[in-house]
Amino acid sequence: MKSFTEKVIEIVKEIPKGKVLKYSQVAEKAGNKKASRAVGTIMRNNKVPQIPCHRVVKSDGNVCGYNGINAKNLINKEKLDFVEAKMELLKEEGILFTENGKVIFS
DNA sequence: ATGCTGACGCTGG
DNA sequence: CCCAGCGCCAGCA
Hints:
Layout: H1 4-13, E1 21-22, H2 23-30, H3 36-45, E2 56-57, H4 76-92
Parallel strand pairs: 1-2
This protein binds a DNA duplex (13 and 13 nucleotides) through residues 3-5, 22-24, 27, 32-45, 53, 56, 58-60, 63-66, 68-73.
């Protein structure tokens, strides 16, 4: 029986290219649908490149953290550039975005 | 062990 | 539409 943390890491690592999961989805797959917050905590703690954190988005479809960086901690322009870069990266993987800049979760 | 924080989610005003 | 409150769970001091 792996820990919730271990499961979350496994799940995120195995997210295929061109696929995105919501924090809630990862939490649910890990066993606890309500542990979405914990998922975020785990991601921040495990900022390993092996973990495609950029493929994990919020329910709103808006991306947040990536490789240990939290968009909320960034300011204005940097924040926009940061998010934009992730969006471009995800686009190259086949993930589509709305005009609102949100991820289209299939 | 206890309390607070946070890359969250949902409901209500 | 924007903001506040509550719940839930893992990590850290």
